[in-house]
Write a structure and sequence with these properties.
nine-stranded mixed β-sheet; Enzyme I, Chain A, domain 2; alpha/beta; disordered N terminus; binds phosphoenolpyruvate; single chain; TIM Barrel; Glucose Oxidase, domain 1; 22 helices; binds magnesium ion
Length: about 600
């Protein structure tokens, strides 16, 4: 996960919230030490039970306040992140468990509560189910809050630095995350967590770059050391060289110029240096991300990850709620298409309203279209909301994730057609596409092509499933090479097959935000990219600097052994000659 390079040290985690920053590393401890063992006399039992109840109710009140502040600052979806904590504080498992230890074991309230929390924590860790393990941060938040009341400490005693820094946490609980000020907490590095954990969702909503899942490697991030971190790639350079710092500052200076230009005047079409037109669309997690996408002049939405409406939720959003969410995005882009991906749940993304069984290999398990086709009510509801939001103008396109077979496409097509007819929309006006994320689909794209209108290349999952590298395992992050020769050949095959079948072709995976990756994709022929709004200034500038013609020459004939093994080096050499490596941030 790390390698030395001169004085600098490189640490690799999981990319969780894009953006690059330079800053001092500051460790933040938020834990409350275990309260000392204290027993009570039988006569004190009622008082201790009352103390626990008061602390619990005060905690509920405080979390409700935080929920409300979060709703005002970030929106209802982010506010709902606090619901599991409110439920835990009313859960008999916690409440009765604690009072039993007070009554039967004569423990003081703080001790009884902490004991019960420790047991629940062990149960969560034993569950080994990502959906449950993600609840750990909630449980620890609840522990922290109730104990601070019982021990008479300030409501939020954790000291957050008051000067600009990259904050380092073993774990980051939701209530601490929403207290962060993005002008001070300029970056987050978190030992625990996944890209879909609540802390990562909140970091993205607040626009704070974040790298997560470092585990024990977090110890390498020395307190007070300078670091450059890139939340888009998961790379952290600790103690960068003077040259690396200068390069970072220069890249940031130029990007802030591009951002200023974008806000001063409407951005024109994006073209390569040799005048080839390229479409840049936005990847959205939440409907309100559409505002950021409009600010950077995105040509619509290439990937709306609708599952973020349901991850961690206890109640299925109604058709009306979904319709409003989807319509608001469609209305934000009157002149461009919006591509809605149907719920990509399972893998590492779990709604709480579904009983998703623990699986040995969740990424190979009950995920995405498999779940949706097994739960027709859930799926039809979503499709109905989507079709209604798109209307007859085909403004909303439906994208199916994690497809492995033609049968899944046919079954979805049938549901889309039935639902469209049911709401009086012409089925032919609802474009249907698939994510190309599995080798099975690459192999059978010729069979599937006549039943769909477009494809979107998901380089993140296609790399995971082709290279057999779990994308949620930071230990393997260095093996997750989306520019592996096998990947290059797959990208070329998908492009050829989809073009010869007359399909529209886009890329929505993260490779499109890596300069070398984007150059290769341009060289193969891809022209339509969907990326996070925060990456627009950089990618817009990058596209304007490279020549599609020259890249096509470098990326031709990937079927030949000699070509495919050289293409990455050739493209890097071309970029070195065109754009000095110092100007490409952490891209090497
Ligand atoms: C992908 O797999 O490349 C993709 C864009 O989907 P996600 O990252 O949401 O799985
Ligand atoms: Mg994917």
């Amino acid at each position: 996960m790390q390698s030395g390079s001169g004085g600098a040290e490189r640490v690799l985690g999981l990319a969780a919230s894009p953006g690059r920053v330079l800053g001092e590393l500051r460790r933040v401890e938020w834990n409350v030490a275990a309260p000392r063992h204290r027993t009570i006399a039988e006569t004190e039992i009622p008082v201790e039970v009352l103390r626990f109840d008061e602390a619990r109710l005060a905690s509920i009140e405080r979390i409700e306040e935080l929920r409300e502040t979060t709703r005002r600052k970030l929106g209802e979806i982010e506010a709902k992140i606090f619901d599991p904590q409110l439920m835990m504080l009313q859960d008999p498992d916690l409440v009765e468990g604690t009072t039993r230890y007070i009554r039967e074991n004569f423990l003081a309230a703080e001790r009884a509560f902490d004991w019960r929390i420790t047991e629940l924590r062990t149960q969560i860790l034993d569950a080994a189910h990502l959906m449950i393990v993600d609840r750990l941060a909630d449980l620890m938040d609840v522990r922290y809050r109730v104990l601070t009341h019982l021990l008479g400490r300030a409501a939020d005693p954790t000291q957050l630095p008051n000067e600009r820094a990259i904050l380092v946490f073993d774990d980051l609980t939701p209530s601490l995350a929403v207290r962060l000020d993005p002008s001070i907490a300029v970056g987050l590095v978190i030992g625990a967590g996944s890209r879909t954990a609540h802390s990562a969702v909140l970091a993205r909503s607040m626009g704070i770059p974040a790298v997560v899942g470092l585990g024990k490697e977090i110890a390498r991030l020395e307190e007070g050391a300078m670091a450059i971190m890139d939340g888009g790639s998961g790379k952290i350079i600790v103690r960068p060289t003077t040259r690396e710092v200068a390069a970072h500052v220069e890249v940031e200076r130029r990007l802030s110029e591009v951002r200023d230009q974008l806000s001063d005047r409407p951005a024109g079409p994006v073209t390569t240096h040799d005048g080839v037109r390229v479409a840049l669309r936005a990847n959205l997690d939440q409907p309100h991300d559409a505002a950021a996408a409009q600010r950077v002049a995105a040509e619509g939405v290439g990937l709306f990850r609708s599952e973020f409406l349901v991850i961690g939720q206890r109640v299925i959003p109604s058709e009306k709620e979904q319709y409003e969410a989807y319509s608001s995005v469609v209305e934000s882009f009157p002149d461009h298409p919006v591509t809605l991906r149907t719920f990509d749940i399972g893998g590492d993304k779990f709604p709480l309203f579904l009983d998703m069984p623990p699986e040995e290999n969740p990424y190979l398990g009950w995920r995405a279209i498999r779940v949706c086709l097994d739960l027709p009510d859930l799926f039809r509801n979503q499709i109905r909301a989507a079709v209604r939001a798109g209307g007859d103008q085909g403004r909303l396109r439906i994208l199916i994730p994690f497809v492995t077979s033609l049968d899944e496409v046919l079954a979805t097509r049938k549901i889309v057609n039935d639902v469209a007819e049911g709401v009086g929309v012409d089925p032919a006006s609802v474009p249907l596409g698939i994510m190309v994320e599995t080798p099975a689909v690459v192999e059978t794209l010729d069979l599937i092509a006549e039943h769909i209108d477009f494809v979107s290349l998901g380089t993140n999952d296609l790399s995971q499933y082709t290279l057999a590298v779990d994308r949620g395992n930071a230990r393997l992050a260095h093996l997750s090479d989306a520019l592996h020769p096998a990947m290059l050949r797959l990208y070329a095959r998908v492009f050829e097959q989809a073009s010869s079948s007359g399909l529209e072709i886009a890329v929505c995976g993260d490779l499109a935000t890596d300069p070398t990756g984007l150059a290769v994709l341009l060289g193969i022929g891809y022209r339509d990219f969907s990326i996070a709004p925060v990456s627009f200034p950089e990618i817009r500038e990058f596209v304007g600097t490279v020549s599609a013609g020259e890249l096509a020459g470098l990326c031709a004939n990937l079927g030949e052994a000699d070509r495919v093994s050289r293409v990455k080096d050739d493209v890097i050499a071309y970029l070195d000659a065109t754009i000095p490596p110092d100007m490409r941030g952490l891209s090497e």
